[in-house]
Fold:
Amino acid sequence: MVSVLELPFLCIIGTLVAAFCMPVLARWKRNFCAPLATIVTGAVFITTIIIAYHVMHGEPIRYAVSGWAPPWGIEIVVESLSSMMLMLLSGISFLILIFSFPAIKHEMEHKVIGWYYTAFLLTLAGMMGLVISNDIFNFYVFIEVTGLGACSLVAAKGTRQATEAALKYLLLATIGSGFILFGIGFLYMITGHLNLTFIAQELALVKDSYPFLIWTSLSFFTVGFGVKAALFPLHLWLPDAHSSAASPSSAVLSSLVVKVYIIAFLKILLIAFGLEIFHETFIRHLILVLSIIAMLAGSFFAFVQIELKRRLAYSTVAQVGYIFLGIGLGTPWGLAAGMLHIVVHAFMKTCLFLTAGAFYYQTGIKKVNQFAGMGYKMPITMGAFTIAAFSMVGIPLFGGFISKYGLALGSLEADLPLIILVIIISGLLNATYYFPIIGQAYFSQDGEEHSHGHSSHAEDNRNNAHAEHETPGKFQIDQVPLSMLVPIVILALGIIYLGISPGIVLDFINKTVVALL
Amino acid sequence: MNLELLFVNFPYFVAIILFSLGTLIVLTQTNLIKKVIGINILQSAIFLFFIILGDIQGGVPPIYDPNFPDALYVNPLPSTLMLTGIVVSFSVTAFALALIVKLYLFYGTICAPNFMKLK
Structure:
């Protein structure tokens, strides 16, 4: 009988084994890949719910891998935040995989489908490992697994832009993980430990002897994780990579991959260094300034993009700014709101990228000025898009409002009331680039006029021809498969649920944040 | 500044210089193969850094010898960690080269600025 302590470990192993079965399976029976990957991810999701239930009603799970006690062996620690992240990662991945059934067949070559699922499951395993590991060298290994998996997700599209973006992503991500590894080296130099708990104990004793080394180490971590998580001046790889990948890949890259690096950074920051060192070394102030610039500049850059997925990618840069703002504030509400924004943004951005994929599937549109009449052609998808966009802007009753409200409370706690102004301006900028799309979709009728000039593919022309002999503005139900609609609707309902009762998620977050502060 | 300290710790300076050099090559070179070489220099610098971390002057290999019970052992852990690092470095290089081959098939060149002209 498997005890609950071994379950997190088995989740990762199971996902990894499934990942490496995919290419073999693709040679034998290509159609079995998608169901198997979905079943494995669904099983992992159910397991993570059991883990989360256990963690919430008992002690955090501490498990020494292969029986080696912590200072020497690798330790897995699942506290409440990690268990929530595990649920989020596997749950969102499960929905994206359901969406992938028709979308991947439409957007990718058939012979790379097996490799797509390999890359997806590898990325998922790497992300889950990064969230639950308590060993900093293990962090590095999982960071590289996630990074390589994410790069191959981009490269799997196979187009010129995707290949170029994947190479750019790979090179910059490798520099980032190089910085992180250097930081790990400095930390090992100071403390002689690789386990986060033991580093914290040792660092408390020797803190005053090595002021420069601690500062250097923390700076290396900040730059490394900044590149990985696309903090504003280091975000250069993100828009290309996220906009040129296939839409399910963009969804997982934008909503999950970027966030796990922030969780890893937060774990190193709070468990190993502690908020005191974070404050004394002025890294906190640096992150605060960078996140404010990210919130404004990311939204500005998003505003000038014409291509929908590129606009969404730049919006991710701004939203990462919000999460880093929560860390930079360093107060209980700020941190909790930052973590809540990880969850809310995962729902919103997945929903937006999946709806972008659905729009492309039915009508072939990619630009934001082609949305006229979309509210009548695809009412369900457009409704979900509207909900996600409202949540992005921060309108009450939607998830985004709660996290922005929390950030505002956090900035009051940190005695920086001017940051509320920045949050409001950034929210208004969000509105300026989402509302024209929504307005066009519901209140504009000249759909045909726009869609003529921009069509470049043969399939676009076919779709336009199809659209032409329907009267514009006639209400009809979406023409996309049910397996695309169901994840979109679930995500949209999730956003509304988070906006009305964020209590359960906040319980998970607060239990960890209170324990760490 | 104590000059003697600088000479004693010169491997650390070599590591830092190599790391900076690698980063500079990746960011400034336009030839993609040279970028990959830059990545390799950067990672070798990190390997060097970890290996000097574990080293002690006058240390012996960490194998217990009953004749010298109080011998000074070198820390083997950083060196073993770098075995993993080398594997990661190898896979990143392989993946980057595969992508470069694909880009060469698309564009017929491996020089990044030429991509813009050929689009």
Remarks:
- Chain A touches chain B through 23 residues (CB under 8 Å).
- The longest strand of chain A covers residues 61-64.
- DSSP finds 22 helices and two strands in chain A.
